[in-house]
Amino acid sequence: MTSITLRLLNARGSVSPVTAFMVGLGSVLGVFMVLQLFNDPEIFIQTLAKSLGLGSVYAIIALGFVLIFKATQTVNFAQGGLAVAGALFLSFLVADDNIPFTTISNPFNDIPGPSWIGWGASVIVAMIFAAILGLVIERLTIRPMIGQPLFSVAVITLGLEIVIRVFNNDAVKIEFRSLEVPWGVDGFRIGDAFITWSVVAAMITAAIAFVAVYFFYRSRTGIAMRAVAFDQEAAMAQGIDVGRVFAIAWAAGAVLAMIGGIFATQPPVRQTLSVEPETATIAFRALPAVILGGLDSATGALLGGLIIGLAEIFAGQYAAGEVGWLGAGYPLIVPYIVMIIGLIIRPYGLFGTPEIRRV
Amino acid sequence: MLGRPNLYTSYKQESQIFPTWTQKAALGVFLLILIAMPLDLWLTEQIPFVRFLGDNEWLPLVNKVMVFAIATLGLNLLAGVAGQVSLGHAFFMGVGAVTAVFLGGQGSENAHGLGLPIWIWLPGAGVAAALAGLIVSPVAVRLRGLYLAIVTLGLVFFGIHLGNTKWGAKFAGAPGLGRKAPKLDIRIWKEETPLVNLDDDGRWLGFDLSDKAKTYFLLLGLTVVLAVMAKNILRTRTGRALQAIRDRDIAAEVMGIPEFRYKLIAFGISSFYAGIAGALFSAALSGQVLAADFGLFFSVEFIAVLLIGGAGTTAGPLVGAFFVVMIPKFVETFTKWLDKTEGGITGKFADLALTGPDGDFGVISTGTQTPGWQLNVFDWNIVLFGFLIIVFLIFEPLGLYGVWVRVRNYWKRWPFSY
Fold first, then answer.
1. Is residue A100 packed enough to be buried (19+ CB in 10 Å), middle (13-18) or exposed (0-12)?
2. HSE of B99 in the Cβ direction (CA atoms, 13 Å)?
3. Residue B251 is nearest to which of A163, A339, A359, comparing CB atoms?
4. Burial of A95 (0-12, 13-18, 19+ CB in 10 A)
5. Is the Cβ–Cβ distance between A296 and A276 less than 8 Å?
6. Which of A170, A327, A328 is the closest to B373 by Cβ?
7. Tell me, what's the ipTM?
8. Chunked in runs of 10, what are the mean pLDDT values of chain B (418 residues)?
9. B85 and A CB contact within 8 Å
């Protein structure tokens, strides 16, 4: 019984009932969207932009998850803590004039904010900090676990999340750290639809991150990483330094988490423009995107993030009447519902590699 | 030759819970001490730990240990024995707590409650949680490894959200406020005076007992029964099937073990334990039902208890629960003692480590509000908890049970090293 179902799911190149179902669902949603576009274009465009922005933030965070999973075969539950730690460090750099020429007013809008050059320099310093943090954590806690059961490593990252969160909260204390960005809180208009610049910034960053990861996987180190993901021992036998691959993955994952952490304080996700302890929840909100896309696929992370973002914002905009019984904050659990439906259809996500089970 | 360790002459003998008389006697003495602990006896004052664990200050923690042990026994069946790692244990505990307060709590305009006695609401909480587990398991059975962990993690967020909706709040209490948990008193039906009153101090069999001590006895009985049940499940056909699935699921299926059915059973039993533990947590420990209590941190705590104690064993959850629950209190007591010491080496150490309200040098702040970057004892305890998880997994993946096995083997072979 189980094997028949599996074969249906794994069939490639032929139209399975699953594909038919997904195409059907997609077309129904597409028709609904077109109807809404003609019904009230402003709201539709605004919603679409918002959802793409949110989806991009999810995609950035999800890429971090995927990078680490691809090398170490483990979900890094500490990604949220790393995101807040990185964003906090950036806010210390930007807000307290800790590095020079950050206070020149912004040429793009009237709202005073950090200049692009100073802010960019701060981001680079923060990226280096995040990378070092990732390296240290990897060296101390993950490296000794090479070859150990994967679940143990995942639980270690849970322990890390707990520890990092305490220190983050200590840094934030009662006062939230404001995190200023050069594009400010302003936006632009298409007709009557208002779109914030942060949405555009998130989309551009997600695109850059995806392209970077895409080409990284085709580089020498990236191929080594894929080999390690496939079989650690075999990779070692081929002369690949598994420890180095782990270190690179963690450094890159921490950097991506930090970038996600910046956007987690911006409009499509939160309106507060400040780093708070709750910012760490962005990682748990992005988990459905990772799972839906497949834990080991960069394309899956991007598409999963966008799908989850679309589902969350569109459900919040248009489905209030139908699922109002789910309560006020229901858009927040929509990602998990989408994830569970996706997993029932494809247990390894849309683009994930099915695990080959040997007896 | 009888009673020799590792000498088994029959299958029945090998599958005994305690094969030797020494173990039986040790367990008997241990149980006697546990029963005597809260009593005001000369003997209990002479044994280290027991001397103060029975005091009213420490008894709530001992009660917490037992509730955590019950919850982790359930998680152990799922994660340790069947190998299905679930981060959703807090969700099932929440289901248990909410069912308990629905069946046993007092109803009002904005809260449903039937006011039934404990012998209905406690098993009811377990059964409701088990049903929730059975509903979830068809999805869970299709997933393996970390996919399963993350989906069950989703359950936790889902549960808290449902508890905070308008109709969910009628069961789980207003968001952030919660509602009063059902009373532990034992009644036959809804009569005014309970058969056994657990709410205030009283006199049982000639001993003066506080309400905490009475709760302790109730929990002790439940823990013993549930632990024996968990141990016995391991020894049955079901337990062996679950272990086979954990070790290699396809091989188990090839051997004729229906994987789907046994995973369903594992989820059901595990959730049953979780439901009972959740009901007890709200009724005996926190005194209230609050949806936000049953969050991710709770799930992680049980995973930590399981891994620190030793996954796959019955003693592991019990020892691990004691360790995880007691450590913060020990640290707190130690810090308080350190704060009071003056002079000598310990006094110097206290000067270096502690920070008073004036904010001098030191990493541990003694106040609840910290003036600078220092963390207070509460925060340090959370850090310590995280470090414990990490350190145990890196250095002793089998947990305290592994430590025990090593110590035992050392003395078994003593004076030879091999």
1. exposed
2. 28
3. A359
4. middle
5. no
6. A170
7. 0.86
8. 67 79 88 86 79 83 94 94 91 94 84 86 95 90 83 89 84 83 82 76 76 89 94 92 90 91 94 96 89 89 92 91 91 82 69 62 63 73 91 89 89 79
9. yes
